[in-house]
Amino acid sequence: MFFFNLHTHKGTNQANVTELVNQYPREFDSEIPYYSIGIHPWYIDKEQVEADLAIIETKLKERNCLAVGECGLDKRIEIPLDLQQIVFEKQLLLAQKCNKPVVIHCVAAFQEIIETKKRLLISVPMIIHGFSKNEQLVKQLLDNGFYLSFGKYLLQSRSLGTALETVFKNVPNNRIFLETDTVEEGIEKVYEVAANCKEISIVAMQEIVRSNFTAVFNNKHQ
Question: How far apart are alpha carbons 147 and 141 in whole angstroms?
Answer without folding.
Answer: 8
